[in-house]
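On clarity, I found the account of how folds are encoded harder to follow than it need be. What matters is that the chain and its backbone geometry are given together, residue for residue. For the editor and my fellow referees, an illustration may be useful. For illustration, here is how one protein appears when written out as sequence plus structure tokens:

___
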Amino acid sequence: MTASKRTEKASAGELARTWQLEGGIGFLLRLLEARYDGLYQSLTRQSDITPRQFGVLMALYQQGPMTASVLADRISCDRNTLSEMLKRMAGRRLVSKKSNPEDRRSIQIQITAKGEDALLAVVPAAAELQNLMLAPLRKEDRAHFLKCLLAIAKASSVAGTPDE
């Protein structure tokens, strides 16, 4: 092992010894996600609409029919994942697909009456979930916290990592 490799290893070892797990963003995000998922299941008392599907239905309900590409951008989801999700949702008749009248090469997705009913049945519990998740924060800190989360989530790549 070269001297520089030994120095790197020693430096990494020191960093690992002093690392505060509770201060690591990955650790905290996993805790937050687990809390959210557990509360989502218990508050909505259903398993028909996942949190991601909720986002799809909400986007379609609020903005009307859109192409899969626009929908993927709107909910920050990669197109392959969205495609699979839309297949399942269309199979359950929560959404429908039709040719895009503006561009026959693409399809347009829209919420169905069944999808709208399912969404509206979950919305009150989703609002309660939002309040429960933010309850540990002072009211004046909640909007700032959400703004910070959005800034992190929407940040473009950092130096040395590829844009996606």
The domain at 49-122 is CATH 1.10.10.10 (Arc Repressor Mutant, subunit A). The mean pLDDT is 89. The CA atoms of residues 61 and 116 lie 7 Å apart. The chain has seven helices and three strands.
